[in-house]
Specification:
Number of helices: 10
Structural class: alpha/beta
Strand order of the largest sheet: 3-2-1-4-5-6-9
Number of strands: 10
Order of helices and strands: EHEHEEHEHHEEHEHEEHHH
Helix content: 25-40%
Distance between the termini: 20 Å
Radius of gyration: 19 Å
Shape: globular
Amino acid sequence: MNYNLDDNTAEHAIPIGSLVLVTGITGFIASHVADQLLQAGYRVRGTTRDEDKAKWVKELFASKYGEEKIETAIVLDMAEPGAFDQACEGVSGVAHVASDMSFGSDPTIIIPAVIAGALNAASAAAAHPSVKRFVYTSSSTAITSPKTNTEYTISTDQWNDDDVAKAWAPPPYTQERFYSVYCAGKTQAEQAMWGFVREKKPGFVLNTVLPNYTMGTILSERQQGSTAGILRKIYETGSVEYFNSFPPQWMVNVGDTARLHVAALIDPEVRDQRILAFAFPYNTNDVLGVLRKLCPGKDFPPDIEGLGRDLSRLDNRPGEKLLRKFGREGWMGLEESVRENIGV
């Protein structure tokens, strides 16, 4: 898809052809961020904990863009001091997408590690003058958890203090706490990133991208696909139980999310922004309806009674404007996203 990039006529915050670090490159969103950067003419270095597990990434992108365009770097534990020091050498930008996705329920283990990973990446980037841009993959849950059948407004000056309080409540740390711990980790890590920029005044510009439920193309059969993998299970097994554990909320296509990361890295006009990646609200019945339309020969569960709706209000026009600026047609809708997700 055309990026509308021309080095002869447009100024970019980081030069086309330069090297960009993408952390956690085997992950669902990170692999798409890498793919979009490569499409735009950049080279990519992706971090991974296991070189063998990243082979598919190198093979895929080498076949599409050339072996010289993609490389990997081992980061065994991003929470260890200095974890990203070598990985940041010679890069012009950093997309820190990697995060703890274990969904553990102990805040004393999960949250400090997520914060440390983000700050380690920021510290390494700040130590290398070549780094001019840094984008941090936050989450819609850094603002709020979904609230079914409740009218409320979402804005970029809000933080999810409710889940931070729930996550850090006194033990026992039962498994029911895992979601609040995840939300709190994203919230406090993004807050730490903005605090780092205010205090350290690094040589890079920080932007953050806050995706909601992300669906779309899974790039390899060797990739679980995170939230997209959960949606695909409905198609593969006919079971909706796991997917329906997520309440009604907003969705976004992974290609749109990735393109917003690229915009946050290369657009000189995008500075110090929290970019909402919220396309359209949906619930499980909407997804089931799309699946029945796309796959009329398959059996899917009946609609679920009493699901409710996400009634939140927000302004997603800034994100849509960036998508159009960088070659996409605005937010991709639910039907096309599901189509991509299940590969039909």
